[in-house]
Amino acid sequence: MRRALGSLGCRPALLLRLPLLLLPLLPLLPPLPAARGSPPRLRRSPAAADAACKNRPLDLVFIIDSSRSVRPEEFEKVKIFLSKMIDTLDVGERTTHVAVMNYASTVKVEFPLQTYFDKASMKEAISHIEPLSTGTMTGLAIQTAMDEVFTEEMGTRPATFNIPKVVIVVTDGRPQDQVQDVAASARTAGIEIYAVGVDRADMQSLRLMASEPLDEHVFYVETYGVIEKLTSKFRETFCAANVCALGTHDCEQVCVSNGGSYLCDCYEGYTLNPDKRTCSAVDMCAPGRHECDQICVSNNGSYVCECYEGYTLNPDKKTCSAMDMCAAGRHDCAQVCLSNDGTYSCDCFEGYTLNPDKKTCSAVDMCAPGRHDCEQVCVRDDLFYTCDCYQGYTLNPDKKTCSRAVTSSLTTTEESCKCEAIAALQDSVTSRLEALSRKLDEVSEKLQAYQGRQQVV
Fold it and tell me: What's the rounded Cα separation, in Å, for the pair 84 and 21?
């Protein structure tokens, strides 16, 4: 829920905290008229306020959004906010170290934790920061803070010093990368994240990146013009005797303030161990804990739903629907696929039979005994058959049975006679041709003899 410090309009979630939130605004309100005869009101000077509180040493990194949506005059307001924040801190080599990062589509470390140890130098460096414009890669910025800023080489105190590592992200847009996983890694590494949203900032993204409890780590202001008012809130947080806010607790996940002490708690999906500090993941797939229709898969304190083979997860990510297993490319049937509630079986066309592999088919012999209804002869024709009859029989109109042909014998005798006559004629012609050939040979011999005698004469 948005915490609009830039306006005094009441919101339901702020009713209980309204007196506390109005404290930073009191110096800006006109003084109330004094009652007749009453003494003038006394106000603490800024110097007295500084002397009243010294924040615990921090390794503090500001990550500021300078994407295209942040106008130049708005970016100048952010720089003023940073300068006023530095005024509230106890900056020094042995106290609080400060780094500033600038990001858009790219990330720039303006100065790391070990560069400046006096407020004047820090504020001078901040005054020269220029916006980068273009996109909003908030996840990349937090990852860069982990990789390049929160290192001992760049000024982070060793873990044995027990110095809280704190990040304050200021943005007016929606991250264009996966900020949730990166922020979770940062929190796991012991980095406390405050998310400050301005104007168009996406509140859900702020909540995903911020540390628990969210109502102490997520802030919102309507415009950059009132962002300076957050300095008092942060000063109160860092200076208060709030062990959870200062990061001096030993809770693994969630710290809950309890007067001057604290209690540990766990994120959803985790349960507090007997040591009252660490947490263990709950089996979210235990009966009654999940809403999965078929299969629940436990996932680090949470769960995801899956489906049995032959089913697909519906858009609600909980229920399942049977897939059409006979859709193209889903089965290995050679001919016919029969869908059956998330699975399938194979079958064959008429004239084929399913092979033992239950996938392929072989052609059936349609003329095998018992497969046809022909009375006499079955003639196979690919996957079909036709009926025929023995010699001397003719096929009836039903194309199955046969009847004896009445004229079959007569036709046979007549045809036989014709064949004999033709054969006799052929023999007679052949004999005559042979006799004529012999006569021609004799004539040829006589002619040759006569020609020989004429040559002698």
Answer: 18
Tokens of 147: 């990789």
Cβ(123)–Cβ(115) under 8 Å? no
Q: Which two tokens stand for residue 22?
A: 């109005």
Contacts of 226 by beta carbon, 8 Å cutoff, 6+ apart: 5, 6, 7
What are the start-end ranges of the H helices in 161-296?
179-188, 203-209, 230-239, 243-246
Write down the residue that tokens 């007196």 correspond to: 19
| 135-167 confidence digits (pLDDT tens) | 899 999 999 999 999 999 999 999 888 889 999
- Entry pTM: 0.46
Rounded Cα distance between 184 and 124, Å, is 33
Which residue, chain included where needed, has tokens 């992200």?
Answer: 169
